[in-house]
Amino acid sequence: MQKSSLFKLLRTEDIQCQVCQRRCKIAPGKRGFCQTRKNVYGELYSLIYGRVSSIRVSPIEIKPLFHYYPGSRWLSLGSLGCNFRCPGCQNWEISHADVAKQIPFTEYIPPEKVVHLAIEENCKGISWTYNEPTLWLEYTLDTAKIAKEQGLLTNYVTNGYITTEAMNLLGPYLDAYRVDLKGFSAHTYKRIANISDFKRILHNIRTAKYQWSIHVEIITNLTPGINDNENELNDMAHWIVNQLGPETPWHITRFVPHYKLSHLAYTPVSQLERARHIGIAQGLSYVYLGNVPGHAAENTYCPRCGKLIIERRNYQILQYNLQGNKCTFCNQTIAGCFE
Fold this sequence. Notes:
- The chain is α/β, with parallel strands linked by helices.
- The chain contains nine helices and 21 strands.
- The protein has helices at residues 92-95, 99-102, 111-120, 137-149, 164-170, 186-193, 199-211, 230-244, 269-281, and strands at 2-3, 7-9, 15-17, 25-26, 37-40, 43-46, 51-52, 54-59, 73-78, 107-108, 125-128, 153-158, 176-180, 215-222, 250-254, 287-290, 300-301, 308-313, 316-320, 322-323, 326-327.
- An eight-stranded mixed β-sheet has the order 8-9-11-12-13-14-15-16.
- It is globular and about 65 Å long.
């Protein structure tokens, strides 16, 4: 176990965790909602420091991040547990796991070895993904510091429910923030993520972009009957345009039935296209559709001349018409990092 970086001892023998916005009050010998942090004699310990459940080298497009070094390879790894436990999670085997029981089936990989593996595999950076990386705060922070010293980039694939205190620790060492916007109402977030105050997520996204200059891309997994309300999608797109800027990439992905939502249907492509139209109508330059291989909305088009500048299929790049960050047809600057 590793002592937690952020907790507060209360007047009782309880501890308040300050890693995610749940700020769980944890009684002696007990664990918080995510199951990864335990009160041990008045101190909070992480049970998953360095415990890796999943690891692979994958393209940056699979995060998805489309405007951050397209085609680059990233060492991607995850652990156990989640602070949301969404009913339709595609990685529910690890995010909904009984953490204490599953730890013996993980592999301990120290930060130095993770960095060594990334360099050995010719990766551009390290991505913490598969389950919520905020729960791995101490481990990701230790690894990120070494990674930065070795010239590697870093990425969180996150639900965005981190505390300000944790973000301030992580911010100087994080380069890219692929964050979920699961809906745009307390009602929707309660159904999907078991929380109601999603505005703290909005605050964290702005903090990542403006305080720490982290590259931000937004994803919404469009789930039929849950977060596909047209008014909410309009509000969401409006917020992205006005608070993050019209060049912020928005990925709208097709829901695939999983776990407790396995009874639902796949999102109709027509609904995805409708949501994309909403984003474009609100003024967004780059609105993508995911989990629909071969759809034209997987590609990047120049917002000035409309020409195809990056063609993709199944996370593979088929055409690339950029010189640096400029469109080769009209010299328009394309938002993001491309070399």
